[in-house]
Please model this.
Amino acid sequence: MFICAGCGVHRTAVSEKTETASERQTVADYRYLSERLGIDVTSKDEQHLALYKEAAGWLGTPYRYGGPLSRDVIVRGWSCKFINRYIS
Model:
């Protein structure tokens, strides 16, 4: 708070940045991905955030040799799809 001694005017200075809901969600995403993937995901990794989210979603998916069921995945097909989506 600033007080002008000559005129008695009071002003409140806002110096703290208020975090938005979107920023809080992003921080929560970084924390979740860090725990799920076992790596330190920070704001420096923002360009890779979609990639990390995709990878975290696939963790624990079973591999089935010889062909997938609806809940299984063939690594070769998944790899091609993944590379085409995030690398190309």
Notes: The chain has a mean pLDDT of 75. The longest strand covers residues 2-3.
